[in-house]
Amino acid sequence: MSSPFPSVDVARPSRALRVGLLSVLILSFVVLGVHAQSARGSRSTEPNFKVAIIGDQGSGGNAEAVLRLIRDERADMVLHVGDFDYQDNPARWDAAITAILGADFPYFGAIGNHDVDRWSGGGGYQARLRQRLQRIAGATCTGDLGVKSSCRYRGLFFILSGAGTMGSGHEAYIRQQLEADRSTWRIGAWHKNQQEMQVGGKKSEVGWGPYDACRDLGAIIATGHEHSYSRTKTLIDFRNPRVDPGWPDPDRLRVASGATFAIVSGLGGRSIRQQQRCLSGCDEWAKIYTSDQGAQYGATFIEFNVNGDPNAARGYFKNIRGQIIDRFTITAGARVMADTGRPPIDVSEESPPAIMRDMEEQGDALPRSATPPPTRRPTPPAPRRSSPPTPRRPVPVDGCLVSRDRWQGAGLPSQNGTFSIAFDMIPDRAPINAITGLSLGRADDYDDLAASVRFNPEGLIDARDGLRFAAQTSIAYEPGARYHVRMVVRVPEQTYDVYVTAPDGPERAIALGHAFRSEAGDVGALNHWAVFARDGSHEVCDFSGP
């Protein structure tokens, strides 16, 4: 039967037209998806938003030079990953920042172990950070600021954690905050490290939980504590370091669910330490910058939302001599990286010579390398310690404190004038490498001890004098013998004397007018004493002081 309607020939659309229509349809879905994601709160930072990351600052010329570098690089904010002035003087620390960066400059900080004693209270570091926060337009922070807190500023979401230093439950808090956030760029910041996530002599004090939380949820990890700079490649496993096979390039990084990288930025001005791990190279590290590589003080800079790409960032480490030591690009998410460009390398100056250290830090004379080590997988690393999240308090044994391979000590009334202390030292064997000394705040490295006396690896007793150890008189020590030590300390002059009485012998001077250790030469007071043994052990008994 014929149709009642006339036959009409309809031209089929060309293949090009069909492809074009399909492309428009797909693009519409993508745009709708982006808007839906935006509605959930996902967003990047403001364009070209630059963050400076520093730790282990100290006070004086080096710390001030780093602050001037941050100012000259036109950073939009500072993220300070703990250990402020090392002098327990929050007012003076804050005044130094104000003098260079300004009273309203966005300055955020997480607690470090050298900040604990003056952290709380009306005039403490936390109060100073809160006061700054109130002056920063557009910045918001919730929680216990610097200990268990999360902040937003100009599109950046960051967590300030006391993991390993103060408080507990940090992994759960970090996960909770990151899961609730939809920002493109996030940073998890805390002070201390796991041993495998630094290249110096630090032990594992954080636990893997905070690292895993940031990796699982795609947040950059920023730490300090070890006084050097180091940066990993993109890692998908921190406990047994494993580089992301899809992003193996050391200078092209990504952050996404299951993958991120870690930075140790500990060259804020206090001191510079030597490399002790990965001397033969470790595949997980993209850059290592310690005294072995002639390191100078400086800061890490990361600029987010660059070249009009909200998912692209670029980073670099620059020292106070103007040299860019490391440079890298970062992509947020799983897509192919955009070309974000890189800061130029300044090769106008030669790298400074490596800083030499004495037998104190060398132990068994570990080899050094003058240049960064090759990136190859080493032999299996030393076994990891299972450490509590907070430092252990030393337990005296019969009135004595026994040194171990972990720093221990106790407080004493703060002294800013001339004072004397006395104690007995007993080595467990000879020779050993064990030290007793005075510091401002808790000591966790040799650099913290302004004045110290040591059972040295040559079997003699000596004392620190500026950059080296020395002794006025040669006194050999024997296992189990008790040596009485008297120290006269002059804080204003930054000098001290040490007198030692061996068993059945007269008191003899081994140090007269010795200078405070160079890295601690700017302290204005001393309020702690500490013991540590790199090799062997010793007891310190009958400590008496002011």
Brief summary of the model shown:
The chain has 546 residues and is of the alpha+beta class. It is built from 7 helices and 29 strands.
Please name the fourth-level CATH homologous superfamily of the largest domain.
Metallo-dependent phosphatases
Give Rg in angstroms.
27 Å
Write down the domain tally. Answer: 2
Strand-residue fraction? 25-35%
Instruction: Tell how many strands the DSSP assignment holds.
Output: 29
**What is the tally of helical segments?**
7
Biggest pleated sheet: 8 strands, mixed
Which class of the largest domain in CATH terms?
A: Alpha Beta
Judging from the principal axes of the Cα atoms, what is the shape? globular
User: In CATH terms, what is the architecture of the largest domain?
Assistant: 4-Layer Sandwich
Query: Which regions contain 5 or more consecutive residues with pLDDT less than 50?
Result: 1-13, 23-41, 335-397
Question: Biggest sheet: strands side by side, in what order?
Answer: 4-5-6-7-8-13-9-14
Q: Which structural class do the helices and strands define?
A: alpha+beta
**Terminal residue distance:** 118 Å
Helix content: 10-25%
Q: Average pLDDT across residues?
A: 84
* CATH-defined topology of the largest domain: Purple Acid Phosphatase, chain A, domain 2
Throw out a few tags for this protein.
alpha+beta, Jelly Rolls, 2 domains, 7-stranded mixed sheet, globular
Describe this structure in words.
By secondary structure, the protein is of the alpha+beta class. It folds into two domains: 49-362, 4-Layer Sandwich (Purple Acid Phosphatase, chain A, domain 2); 400-544, Jelly Rolls, CATH 2.60.120.200. Helix content is 15%, strand content 32%. It has helices at residues 15-39, 61-72, 90-101, 125-135, 170-180, 209-217, 359-362; strands at 49-54, 77-80, 107-109, 140-144, 148-153, 156-161, 186-189, 220-223, 229-232, 235-237, 242-243, 252-255, 262-265, 285-289, 298-306, 309-319, 324-332, 400-402, 408-415, 418-427, 433-439, 449-455, 461-465, 468-470, 483-490, 495-501, 507-515, 526-535, 538-544. The strands form five sheets. Strands 4-5-6-7-8-13-9-14 form an eight-stranded mixed beta sheet, covered by helices on one side. The chain has a seven-stranded mixed beta sheet with strand order 3-2-1-15-16-17-12. β26 and β27 form a beta hairpin. The protein is globular, with a radius of gyration of 27 Å.
